[in-house]
Specification:
Blueprint: H1 8-20, H2 23-30, H3 34-48, E1 53-56, E2 59-62, H4 64-88, E3 96-103, H5 108-121, E4 125-132, H6 134-142, E5 148-151, E6 162-176, H7 187-190, E7 194-197, H8 204-212, E8 221-225, H9 229-237, E9 242-246, H10 247-255, E10 260-262, E11 269-278, H11 285-299
Parallel strand pairs: 3-4, 3-5, 7-8, 7-9
Antiparallel strand pairs: 1-2, 5-11, 6-9, 6-10, 6-11
Helix pairs in contact: 1-2, 1-3, 1-4, 2-3, 5-11
Length: 302
């Protein structure tokens, strides 16, 4: 096929519609009118001689050809953007945008310190954070809409487009507004305690209880599913219940006696946090610097 007949802007309009699920969202992202985006997609279909979307009511659903084109062009578009940046930045200055995905519940304490130091060292860099579920963040990485993401579970062999690197392990502790016991807590004592958790589909409190009381079958009384560590912390301080938090987030309040630690006598539960990124992707000087600094900075507390 003669590539002179294919307009790059039409391809980008098509990709925006495919990634955002509709013309309106794509138009907003591209700062174009709905009509302009629709005409671009129609023009691209005409040039290629294939249908890229099926019109189902008001929805646009990718055809098999459209799905293949969206997947492959996303990689080509990212490589083109990287090549243009390399040409425009021959001195490899650390500047521009870094897009980092965070699982909901990621501890702000450790990351905030790193971002403050990195942006102070590289004042021409801007960092954009996106919170989401693991599956959503991996989809964004695969579509080249994120540069990196933090995850609690590494990508497996079924995700060859991604690679995972262990960043650190974080200690998870159960905290309350008032002390539950003078010494260690028992399983019986926790029966009447209200809890704050994150997700109903993957309850962290139940995992904490199984870790500390493996021979007991404890069903926690979860009053609120908070979805984020910040909200869980505020709910504990307000007296809504006990919650499992990263130790570094709770530590200042434990020292100030505003929170109290519930100990079982067993070692605390620990989670591994992984850095995920597209496998084999070309990295700009900025992304290389961000990755190296992230690994070096967080490795100090591993």
């Amino acid at each position: 096929m003669n590539l002179n007949n294919v307009d790059l802007n039409k391809l980008r309009s098509f990709l925006a519609v495919a990634e955002r699920g509709g013309v309106s969202a794509a138009a907003g992202a591209l700062s174009l009118t709905r009509s302009a985006v629709s005409q671009s997609v129609a023009g691209l279909e005409s040039s290629l001689g294939v249908r890229l979307f099926d019109r189902v009511g008001r929805r646009l659903v990718l055809t098999a050809e459209g799905s293949t084109l969206a997947r492959r062009f996303a990689r080509v578009d990212a490589e083109l953007a990287s090549a243009l940046e390399w040409v425009a930045n021959p001195g490899h200055e650390v500047r521009g945008l870094v897009r980092l995905g965070l699982f909901v519940g990621a501890s702000r304490a450790r990351l905030a310190g790193f971002l403050a130091r990195f942006t102070a060292a590289h004042p021409r860099v801007r960092v954009k954070l996106l919170y989401g579920a693991h599956a959503e963040l991996r989809g964004q990485l695969g579509a080249n809409r994120l540069d990196f993401a933090l995850a609690l579970v590494p990508s497996d062999e079924a995700e060859p487009r991604l690679r995972s690197t262990l960043l650190f392990r974080q200690e998870l502790v159960l905290v309350t507004r008032r002390p539950l016991a003078r010494g260690v807590v028992s399983a019986e004592l926790l029966h009447g305690v209200p809890f704050v958790d994150y997700y109903q589909s993957s309850p962290l409190v139940r995992r904490w209880l199984r870790h500390h009381f493996p021979r007991q079958r404890l069903e926690p009384d979860v009053r609120v599913f908070a979805a984020s560590t910040d909200l869980a912390l505020e709910l504990v301080l307000a007296g809504a219940g006990a919650a499992v938090l990263p130790r570094e987030l709770a530590e200042p309040l434990l020292r100030a006696k505003r929170l109290h630690l519930a100990r079982s006598g067993r070692p605390e539960l620990r989670d591994a946090v992984w850095l995920e990124e597209p496998a084999g992707a070309w990295r700009s000087a900025t992304l290389q610097a961000f990755r190296a600094a992230l690994l070096a900075d967080l490795a100090e507390a591993t």
